[in-house]
Amino acid sequence: MRIGIGLPNQVRDVHAPVIPAWARRAEEAGFATLGTTGRVAYPGVMDTVALAAAAGATTTIGLLSQVLLATTWPGALLAKEAASIDGVSGGRLTLGIGVGIREDDFVVPGHGPRDRGARMDRDLATYRSMWAGEPVPGSPNPAVPAGRRQVPLLFGAFAPAAYRRMAESSDGYIAGSVPPALASAAFVAARAAWRAAGRPGQPRLVAHNYFALGDPGRGRANIADYYAATGEYQDIVVGNLHTDAESLRDAVEQFEALGADELILGPGTDDLDEITRLADIVL
């Protein structure tokens, strides 16, 4: 199982210049992937910007959005953004997407929370078309340079429609920031949807948890603040925050036993020393 680390772009009032420095240090430490968690209506760094900054600051580490709120974007614009980040990084991006749940993140006129599932289905076709080099709707020009690839897609969420989209249109599934026991049920559902869709092999399965080692209290407060509008889910995520070596090693063992292909550990603070603290425990 690969071990990745999140960028601190979701930390409230993050010191934005830390993003490229964090990416470089994480790559040097040996993490497999850099992940992002992002919203619009929150004082952090947009996930696409954080991924682009990380792409420019590194050379080998993977890049993953987990998950980007795809339906808050016009489909053609997100397709262009993702292809651009993937191109700049040399083909290191995996685009993890979801439909979003908080109404205040939907700020683009005509792209509100209503009918976002149906819009996602339409946008998926737009992504594939534009990544294949077909013209932008209404233009003779394609949006991406010739020879670009189809950006790998993962889906996150717990709704039946999300599992269907994952199985029909992507490379795998991202579980929420939950304990292994809850992620297990999601992985079972993802595998079942994959088989029902007639897909060969197995979906790529990614788990996500949070950690705070240097200042657990501040990390816990930051995570609670970020998930404040999610009700019971906030309690699950905060209760699952890892603050010591024993908890982290146990999580790694349990997710590996579940068959997860990758575990991304997201930071509760933007303290650069958290990278070394985490690496000393899990790498």
Automatic annotation (TrEMBL):
InterPro entries: Luciferase-like_dom, Luciferase-like_sf, SsuD_RutA_monooxygenase
Domain Luciferase-like: 19-239
Keywords, sorted A to Z: Flavoprotein, FMN, Monooxygenase, Oxidoreductase
Domain of life: Bacteria
Any one GO biological process: alkanesulfonate catabolic process
Gene Ontology MF: a single term: alkanesulfonate monooxygenase activity
Gene3D superfamilies named in the record: Luciferase-like domain
Keyword Oxidoreductase listed: yes
Pfam family membership, one: Bac_luciferase
Protein name: Luciferase-like monooxygenase
Organism from which the protein derives: Pseudonocardia kunmingensis
Lineage, broadest ranks: Bacteria, Bacillati, Actinomycetota, Actinomycetes, Pseudonocardiales
